[in-house]
Amino acid sequence: MQPEQIIRRPIILTEKSSRLRDQGNKVIFEVRREANKIQIKDAIQTLFKVGVVDVNTMIMRGKEKRMGRGYAKLRNWKKAIVTLKEGDEIQFFDEKAE
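Structure for Large ribosomal subunit protein uL23, as requested:
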């Protein structure tokens, strides 16, 4: 698998992700369910040119949503919490103050 296929999207607009980014130098990503920790680590290092110390993964259960009169279950997805090397940082937004 290519690194672009492994990493789906960063999860950056939650309170937990903001707290982890500020305090622990950690970043949260949604990744493919088939990807393992070694593949996730290599993909992050290749795409963002940073050092990765640790990768923790978890399967997030899909929620049940109301669809018309019935219910449907959204698919399960995998979340990876990536600990970056001290001094490394991933900039998702251009944070220039004008």
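The longest strand covers residues 52-60.
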